[in-house]
Structure formats: structure tokens, C-alpha cells
Amino acid sequence: MTENSIGNHEPTPKRQKIDSINPSTPEIRSPRTSKWESSCLIRELEVYRTRLSNTEVAMGHLQKMKEEVERAFLEREQMLEMQLRVEGDTMRNLEDRLELAKRGCEEICESEVTVEAEFFSRETRIREKIESLFSEDPTLNRNALFLQTEKIENVEGQMMRMEMKVDGGLKKNMGTHESQGPGREGVDDSKISRADDLGNNNAILLARARELEKQLESAKNTILTFRQVENEKNYPGGVGPTGQRDLGAVEGVDQSGEHEENERTPEITASRVPDGVTSVQDKLLPQACGICKDMKASEDEGERNSQQESTNTSPDKLKKGENSRLNIKNYYILVSHPKFFEINWEKYYRPVRCGGFTCTQCFQKKSSKSSMQDHIWIEHFKERFLCPFCSNVSLFISRYNVGYHIRTRHSSDFFTQQGGEGNA
Known about the structure:
The chain is mainly alpha-helical. It contains 12 helices and 6 strands. It has helices at 3-8, 13-19, 35-136, 138-180, 185-234, 266-271, 275-284, 289-307, 309-312, 369-380, 399-409, 411-423, and strands at 324-328, 331-335, 349-351, 357-359, 365-366, 385-386. Helix 3 (35-136) packs across helix 5 and helix 5 (185-234) crosses helix 7 (275-284). The radius of gyration is 55 Å and the shape is rod-shaped.
């Protein structure tokens, strides 16, 4: 190859890098290189080619990694989008349920308001009926006056007996003082002071009796008001029950006696009160504190006595065809059948946690065992309690009604009975 041919041939870019010392001055030609420099350049070229191939391999690996990362990100994005759609559907369902719950609450509130308004209107109508019935029905007014008169007479009788006891004690102390002479002045003074204390106690009892009369009047008025409501509910037209049940099945009871309307005892009126009114009375009577305490004490005594009934009176001692005797405190009444003493009462009622007892047949609640036994005897056995001194056909609803009847109608027989039992 000649110099002219070399000068006419334009070098390639690679040849420029090898042969040209300064590419900006192509006119200056590089001198002829030696073999050693050519070998060095060749080795350097191989090194660069090796590096280039390694770089290409690394680039291919990185490209694959990039594709894998992009594919993973794409899958994750699709998964998140699907989860977002599911959560969006869940949120919409929850919003729908919340809206339904709100509408349900609003409907419940509206229904409560409607029920309260209806209840208030009914209560207003009932109160108006109570006022009209109380003002129009003379029989109820007469019964109310009779009940109050009976209780006042009973309290007055107790007051008179207390006064007689105090006077008798004073006279006895004065007679003892006159018979013993002046040597017992100290003892007489103590007896006189004791008599004065008895007089003070009598005054306290009188004040208590007046207070009880006031409380009794208030309680009776409340009871009569609710009794009128119940009678109006069960017997439209303001007419209450006036007939009596047939008592022909009871042995030893004389049915020939007839009683006028004005001679009805409180037991008759109480026996005609429905169960609903009885429960209302149980709720309202505690307002008269003194009366409730006396009633509770009598029920507790009756409960203690009822536990001793089976030992005090046995059916084996009764004659055939006669009513059984039921001892209560210091007197006795009669039951219509001797099976009263053979019944296992615990099968017919059970105690409750809040106090009292519940009937297993009608779920009626009573505060004591004796009251529950009376309820079962009257309502479920269809039997009754009887007065031992008369053939009164009153439907006594409990043993204590008979006792009240005996103390008020047969007071002389009652004290005679007490004296006879005491002597025995």
C-alpha cells in the first residue's frame, strides 16, 4: 500500500481513535506504529469487548429483573383494586344497613309516642268515668260510708275497752290503797304514778286512734275509687255484681237468712273485688303506714299459727258431717271441709326471690304463706271459711275476714270463746 493510497482513503471512526492522535487535525498524520503498540492496542480492544459483553449480560439481567418487578407491581395493583372494590361494596352495604336501622329507630320512637298518647287519652277517659261514677252511683257512696263507719266503730270499741281497763286499774289501785292503810304510802305512790302512766298511754293511744282513722279514710277512698274502675270495666253501665253464689253444697250452713243491702259486711264487698283491683289495693294500701303495720303483724302471727294448725287440730278428732276447726291466735274459725288439714300446700305455691309466694296454677302473688293458702283454698279448691257463731253466708276471702267478722259481729261470743280457751 502506497502513501498516496493511504492519503486518499478516509479512515473509519475506530481507525480514527487508533491512528489519529488528534482528530481535530486530520492533516497531521500519525507515524507508523510498531508491532508492540499494535499488540497492546489489540489487547486493550479485547478488554473493552469483554467489558462490553459483560455489560450487555448485566443489562439483560437487569432488564429481566425490571420486567419481574413491573409484573409484581402490576399483580399487586390488581389485587389492591379488587380489595378496594370489595371494601367499597362492604361500605355501601353498611351504609344501607345503618339507614335501615335509623328508619327502624324512628318508627319505634313514633310508635312509642303514639302508644303514650293513646295511653294518656285512655287514662283521661278512665278518670272522667271515675268522677262520673263516683258522683252518680249512690250505692258505692253508701258502701264507702258503711266501710268507714265499721272501722270507726271498731276503733271506738277498742278505745272504750282500753278506757275500761284503765278505769278498772285505777279503781283497783285505790281500793288496795284504802285497805292497806298509811303504812304503804311509798307503794301507793308508785301505783299512783303507774296509774298516771296508764292515763298518759291512754291519751297516746287515743291520738294514735285518731291518726289511724284519718289514714283509714284516705286508704278507703283510694280503694273505692279503683274498685269503681274495676266494676265499670267488668260490668258496663256502672252496675256491679249483686248476686251471691250458691252455697247449697256446704254442710251445716243455714241458708234461710237473708241480709239487706245496708247490713252487708266489709267481707262481702271485699269478696266481690276482682283480682286486678286486689293487686291495685295491695299497691296503694302501703300509703297508710299504721294500717299496713297492723295488717303485716296479723299476717305474720297467722303464718306462725298456720304452721301449728296440723298439730293443734287433727281431722281424726272431727265428727263426720261437722266443719273443721282452724285455730288462729286466740280464737278459731271453721273450714268447709276437713281436707284443708290434709293438703300438701307446698305443691301449690313456691317462694320468689323478691319476697312472698307465687301460686303455681294462676301465678297470683301473696306476701305470706297463710294468705297464699287462703287464696288456693278459695279459688282453686272452691271451698270457703265459715263463722262458728252464725249461719252467715258471706263469702269470706281469707281467714282474717272471718276473724274481723267475729270481733265486730260477735264480740260477746268472741270474749266468751277466749275465756273458755284460757280456762281450758
